[in-house]
Each structure stands twice: as C-alpha cells, then as structure tokens.
Amino acid sequence: MNLNIFKKYNKPGPRYTSYPPATFFKSGFTAEQFIEQIIRSNDDQPQNMSFYVHIPFCPRLCHFCGCNTGISQKEEVIRRYVDAVITEIESIAKYLDKSRNVSQIHWGGGTPNSINLDYVEEIMAVFRKHFRFIEKPEIAMECHPAYLEYEDIDRLATAGFNRLSLGVQDFDEEVLKLVNRAPSKYPVKDLVHYLKEKGFRGVNLDLIYGLPGQTKESFARNIQKTIDVSPDRLATFSYAHVPWVKSAQKILEKRGLPTPDEKLQMFETGHNLLTEAGYVAIGMDHYAKAGDDLALALKNKTLARNFQGYVTRETTGQVYGFGSSSITQLWGGYVQNVKTASQYIQEIEAHGIAPDKACLMTNDNLIVREVIAEIMCNGRMNFEEIGQQFGKTAFEVKRIVAFQPEKLKEFIEDDLVSINKNEINVHKEGFFIVRNIAMAFDPLLKTTEAMYSKTI
Ligand SMILES: C[S@@+](CC[C@H](N)C(=O)[O-])C[C@H]1O[C@@H](n2cnc3c(N)ncnc32)[C@H](O)[C@@H]1O
Ligand code: SF4
Prior knowledge:
Blueprint: H1 3-9, H2 31-41, E1 49-55, E2 57-58, E3 70-71, H3 75-93, E4 101-109, H4 117-130, E5 132-143, H5 150-158, E6 163-169, H6 173-178, H7 188-197, E7 204-209, H8 216-229, E8 233-238, H9 250-255, H10 260-276, E9 279-282, E10 286-289, H11 293-299, E11 303-306, E12 309-312, E13 318-322, E14 327-330, E15 333-337, H12 341-351, E16 355-360, H13 363-378, E17 380-382, H14 383-390, H15 394-400, H16 406-413, E18 417-420, E19 423-426, H17 434-439
Parallel strand pairs: 1-4, 1-13, 2-3, 4-5, 5-6, 6-7, 7-8
Antiparallel strand pairs: 8-10, 9-10, 11-12, 14-15, 15-16, 17-19, 18-19
Helix pairs in contact: 3-4, 3-12, 8-10, 14-15
The protein binds S-adenosylmethionine and iron/sulfur cluster.
C-alpha cells in the first residue's frame, strides 16, 4: 500500500451514500408531494421494499458522534415516539401496493437496543400486520454492546432479527473514556459467538480510527482482537470530524486528535492485518469474510449502496424510512423526515407523516447516480452499458456526467484507474480512494466541496 497516494488524495468529498448527496436535499417538501412519490414508487424498481426505522435516543452521547440522535428521554416521550412511528407506518402502508414484498428491515439510530424491546416487538408486529415478506428477509439492528443482554438477543431472534451490528469503536476502555462512551457489558467475543449460535448471519463490528488516545499500535491491537472475535463483517470508519455540524466534537480537539499521518498508518496497519487474516475489503471502510454475502456480491459485481451502507442488489428494495431524520430512498428521489424527535412527534400527531427535505431525481440525476454507484460499489463502469439502460448513447452519458479525460489523468498516472474506450476500471489500490474517483463523475460537485469531511 502506497501511503503517499492517500495523502495526495485526502481531500473533502461526499461519501456518496446517496446521489445527489444529502447536502442537495431541499426543505419545504409537502405531504401531498411525498404521497405522490410513495404511490409512484410502486411501479418503480426494485419491486421489493426495504424499511428503515430510526430510534434517536442514546443513554449517553459519545463526543465523536456524527449521527442524528439525542440523550434518552423519559419513558412517556419514548412511548409517544413509538406511537408516532406506528402511525407513520400505517399512514404510508395505505399507499403501498400490497403485492410487493418486504426484503429488508434495518433498525438504526441512535441506539435502538436501548429502548424497551416491547416497543421493538410492537413495531415489528405492525410491519407483519400490513406487509408480506420474502422468504428470508434481512432484519438487522445496530446495537450498542454496553446495553445488550443475552436475553435481548433471544428476544430479537424471536422477533425475526437475523443480522446484528455491534458498535465496539475501540476495545480500549481508556480511549472509550476519552470519548464519553461505555464499554461492552459482556466480552464482545462471547456476544458474537452467541449471536452466531442463535443463527444470526453477517454479524458486524463497527470500529473507528482517528480518536484521541489511539495510536498505530493500539489500533493494531484492536484489529488483532477483532480477528480473534471473528465477526463476519467489520466496518473500520475513519473518524469524520465535522465540528461545524456537531459541536460536541470540539471536545475531542482538546483531548488530542491523531494527525492525518497517524490516521493513515492506523488504516494501513488495520488493512494489512485484516487482509492477511482473510477478510476482503468492500469499498473503503468495510471488510467481510470471503464467504459472506457482501464479499460474494463484490465478486459478482452486484454490490449496491444506500444510507445503511453496502448492500446486495438481490435483497435491497426501495427504502421507506420511518422515524425522525430517516430518509426514504426511492428510484425517483429521496425524502428526509424532520430532524428532531420532538418535531417528528408533533408532525406525526398532526398529519400522520413528517417529510421535510427532498431531492427528486431528474433523468440526468438517475444516470449520474448509476455511474457513481457502479464506480463506488463494483469498481467498473461502462458508459455504453449505462447508456443502454437509459436509452442514451455513451457520448450522451459522458456529457451528462461532465466527463473530461483530464479529470482521470492523475489517477491513471498513479495506476489507480484504467480507461479503455468506454470502460473505466478501478484498480485494487484505487478502491481506497474510490470516493475521489467517483468525484470525477459528479457534475454537481464544484459548488459544495468545502462541506464534507476528508477521505481518511
Ligand atoms: C448509530 S451508531 C451504531 C449503534 C450505536 N449507537 C453505537 O454507537 O454502538 C452508527 C455508527 O456510526 C459510526 N460513527 C458515529 N459517528 C462517527 C463519526 N463522527 N465518524 C465516523 N464514524 C462514526 C460509529 O462507528 C457507530 O457505530
Ligand atoms: S455513536 Fe452511537 S451511542 Fe454514541 S452517541 Fe452516536 S448513536 Fe449514540
């Protein structure tokens, strides 16, 4: 791995969890417009439906956190929030074609496992009452291991959950103290073992590098521990420092953030240890065991990406988001709910739905989104093939993404990308800076550069 390449390309840029990125969503989207989009989505692809449920409560707030969450509320507020989620599901269910199937449900936050699991069961029962599921849907929850009991795992399994992600962040309790985070209640290795015994697949751990107190050596120890725990998947997120959005992150500046060079070394050490141990790199910050669905999808070039991370094209559907700040991700556009839990409860109690911002796709947006998704997920893109999908020529696709060969010149010189007539291939090392490569195909980029975190 050539670290100079990372340094050279360590620039701010979108993460392309959506295209256009969330910074392009515009406020003022009305309930009528939202319902129109929901009805239209019944005729769009994919046919399957994925649901996302956002739980914006955490018992304690980590100083590094970039998520939409807040401190846990009194039981009565949580009850009202859960009722609002149920109302929202019932409002949207009215407009969804009941011959469609649910292929995925993802619970994120915040910390969904920190609320009473009765509420989780209640919401799952509402989904089952209204919708049909595919034979083996993926039902996942992001869990904070400090608040996870073995009985919770049993209950989640009974409620249909079959995927779990554990937010470890760092195994070192001193680092966790510096970022105001509670450690796992039980040894992570035992939790993962138990999850696998219970039939959970794609068990994932989240780690972050770039926090105060972390060094190249300590991060290597984290990775060694992770390899010993043997999860099916692992996310090693580069700490995204955006204090202009998340003011609590300023505290970490005082506690001493690692330098960009140190962060790079952590990434390199982690990457080498993980690949030696047989993990396959999926995009920039995800790894999976060679037999895992994500690694297979990468091999078969059927990997996709949404706000929940990397997903396989076979199972993912159009995503309908429930809860504050959740994003509905349709073929025709993105709609985000109002941001805070209190605004959400108010809107739902008054109107049954709570859209705020949106970005509807133009035909050109659809094409750029496909080009960027192919680069980001599968490292290969052919202008002619994409054109065929949309009734355009390769020349027209190039014009729409504002393609200029000079934008790829440096990548080609650094042996990160090759271009052969209409086909672009990202080389193995290019995958580490794939979002920079994707930026070369983004005609909207120039106006927003300064608002994103850096690649590493
Ligand atoms: C909703 S949390 C996962 C569930 C639970 N709240 C927890 O913390 O364990 C989503 C993940 O985002 C990652 N994350 C949060 N803030 C981040 C930041 N500023 N930079 C990079 N990753 C971040 C963490 O790894 C975290 O596990
Ligand atoms: S990282 Fe997880 S637990 Fe920590 S504040 Fe963010 S959402 Fe809550």
